[in-house]
Specification:
The chain contains 4 helices and 9 strands. The chain has 211 residues and is an alpha/beta fold. A 9-stranded mixed β-sheet has the order 3-1-2-4-5-6-7-8-9. The longest helix has 15 residues, at 69-83.
Length: 211
Amino acid sequence: MIKKQYIIKEIFYSLQGEGMHSGTPAIFVRFSGCNLWSGREEDRINAICKFCDTDFVGYDGENGGKYLLHELVGLLNDIRSETKCKFLIFTGGEPTLQIDEKLIDELHKEEFFISLETNGTNDVLEGIDWITVSPKYGSTLKQNHGNELKLVFPQDDLNPNIFMSLDFDNYYLQPKESLEYDDNLKLCLDYCLQNPDWKLSLQTHKYLNIK
């Protein structure tokens, strides 16, 4: 019987730069692979998420590799011992392609708090402690509830208010990283001021020049 391996681009300790937990120390687990874009530059023109700014291809980053369940949990425990941090952030790529109940259960046994960042195109498994959904224009949103919805803005004709009927505790607009960033930031500011159910999320880790 072939045992499942988790393919991890990188694992690192840093501060969360976005959303509700901005500024919070966390252990980031970046899973390799995404269902909206292969990560290859030649495929970008056909990708749904053309503005992606993350390298999620392969497993060559810090602590990257292919891990069996006990190996991944063991490594995270070692990092927790060094950092005293129990806050995990599963990100990607798209982490719902790989995470499973066994991984969630084992990490909860070790008293980790599990946060998940997803594009929302797959249902999130029960047991995740904090769910952040970042919808992408042109994709089908299946995960319609969670702790925060974080919308990169603007995205084509995507109107933020179409998400207000969904069951999220917090709604964030995050300016799209592009050559028009200043204009995108102003659009986010104006929209939040005119629609106060929305809050502004900035990628503060980029301002701080950290991961």
